[in-house]
Write a structure and sequence with these properties.
By secondary structure, the chain is α/β, with parallel strands linked by helices. It has helices at 14-25, 46-56, 72-78, 91-108, 127-134; strands at 2-7, 29-35, 63-68, 83-88, 111-116. Strands 3-2-1-4-5 form a five-stranded parallel β-sheet, with helices on both faces.
Length: 148
């Protein structure tokens, strides 16, 4: 099964790497997809994010890293994927993601695979980076080459 993992995947969100590992352990292929929205300014430049993620996953034959514009469901089809991969960190996440999965299946015919994040990573996010940036640090200077 080929899974499309969309969104704001960044190297400071350790739970994302954990979900990719879980999908790989299930025998899946994973397309990590960075959505490009030119109206929103991302925390990190797209090029830096793509380079960092590709560097981390070099040598992984079943992982590819792409960027995409437009609707996720369209990109799923364009990249030959079977389903969207989404992570669950809490009960609230589960309800929200299940509702989105139902909408994607009903309206667009695209399935979603929901994987539960390792509890150790449930509260790890990029909030620390946002705090550092608020103190005048440049996000690209904070980029690291690993997700752990």
């Amino acid at each position: 099964m080929k899974l499309f993992f969309p969104g704001s995947f960044d190297p400071f969100t350790i739970g994302h790497a954990d979900l990719v590992e879980r999908a790989l352990n299930l025998g899946c292929e994973v397309v990590i997809a960075i959505g490009i929205n030119e109206e929103k300014k991302p925390m990190f430049s797209t090029a830096k994010r793509l380079d960092s993620i590709r560097n981390y996953y070099k040598g992984y034959s079943r992982v590819s890293v792409i960027e995409y514009k437009g609707l996720t469901v369209d990109a799923v089809r364009e990249n030959g994927c079977d389903a969207i991969l989404r992570g669950i960190r809490s009960v609230t996440d589960y309800d929200k993601e299940r509702n989105l999965a139902d909408i994607n299946r009903t309206i667009d015919g695209v399935e979603t695979v929901l994987l539960v994040s390792n509890p150790a990573f449930q509260h790890v996010s990029s909030s620390l980076v946002r705090e550092l940036i608020s103190f005048g640090r440049n996000a690209d200077d904070l980029m690291i080459d690993t997700f752990r």
